[in-house]
């Protein structure tokens, strides 16, 4: 039985959303995606929001959304930068169990190729994107209750691994 929410964290392209949905289907718990909430709450697609208001404003709203999620146990898939704010990291640790979906740069770079929806990787080279990941890595690790490497796992396998580790 799930007593606390499960947060899936990880870099863009690590599979948070797909694995979160598979986890929801297998466990029967509701799935909430912070990026999706962001777009419903602001009425603006994230990429347009970045263009109009910038990253700092996005981060503040992202925190508002995280802190106002329902208390009832859910599977919460997060935006890749959620761990950037200390306040968010604290909240994640206190309010649930946090699973870091680790993924090798080779795999996420392949998945992110040609993506037009993520403002932070637009016009960035593979090296720059990998550097962003390396900078964030300690924050993902620091926030996580446990880590799964998703590079060689199917969505189903990753969801099953979480279910057995969490005793869901
Ligand atoms: C971001 C990741 C995105 C989204 C926004 C910023 C980031 O979510 O929140 O574009 O800073 O890593 P995904 O990780 O779901 O792509």
Polypeptide structure, described:
54% of the residues lie in helices and 13% in strands. With 168 residues, the protein is α/β, with parallel strands linked by helices. It has a single domain, classed as Rossmann fold, CATH 3.40.50.300. Strands 2-3-1-4-5 form a 5-stranded parallel beta sheet, sandwiched between helices. The longest helix is centred in the last third of the chain and has 18 residues. Bound molecules: shikimate-3-phosphate (S3P). Shikimate-3-phosphate binds next to loops.
Largest sheet: 5 strands, parallel
Strand fraction equals 5-15%
Q: Identify every distinct bound molecule in the structure, by name, code or SMILES.
A: shikimate-3-phosphate
Give a count of the beta strands, DSSP E runs of length 2 or more. Answer: 5
Question: What is the CATH level 1 assignment?
Answer: Alpha Beta
Helix-strand makeup class: alpha/beta
DSSP helix count? 8
CATH architecture: 3-Layer(aba) Sandwich
Query: What is the CATH topology classification name?
Result: Rossmann fold
Radius of gyration: 15 Å
Number of domains: 1
Which stretches are low in confidence, meaning pLDDT under 50 for 5 or more residues running?
Answer: none
**Average residue-wise pLDDT:** 96
Strand order of the largest sheet: 2-3-1-4-5
How would you name the CATH homologous superfamily? P-loop containing nucleotide triphosphate hydrolases
The helix/strand series, from N terminus to C terminus, equals EHEHHHEHEHHEH
State the helical fraction. Answer: 40-55%
Beginning-to-end CA distance, first to last residue: 6 Å
Shape: globular
